[in-house]
């Protein structure tokens, strides 16, 4: 599955390993990810595309706030345990 803006992704490497994020932007071989808590939408983390994997869901990012993002990630993580 290709990673596009709004894709829910899981980190495979780094301090944030096994955490869920949303792809805020895609730039070649880099993806900017945010979770609404530590990595907000206004300052996403740059991550190599090889260090993340798609979780299988794409959300609409129009009008997305950090609070809504946290809620969507929490709901997805509790449904897919």
Give a verbal description of the structure.
The structure is a single chain. By secondary structure, the chain is an alpha+beta fold. The chain has a single domain, classed as SH3 type barrels (Roll). Helices cover 17% and strands 36% of the residues. The chain has one helix spanning 66-79, and strands spanning 7-11, 20-27, 30-34, 45-48, 52-58. The chain has a 5-stranded antiparallel β-sheet with strand order 4-3-2-1-5, with helices on one face. A hairpin with a 2-residue loop joins strand 2 and strand 3. The protein is globular and about 25 Å long. The model has no long low-confidence stretch (mean pLDDT 92).
Q: Architecture in CATH?
A: Roll
Question: Helix proportion of residues, in percent?
Answer: 10-25%
Distinct helical segment count: 1
Top CATH class: Mainly Beta
**SSE string, helices as H and strands as E:** EEEEEH
- Kindly name the structural category: alpha+beta
Short description:
With 81 residues, the protein is of the alpha+beta class. It has one helix at residues 66-79, and strands at residues 7-11, 20-27, 30-34, 45-48, 52-58.
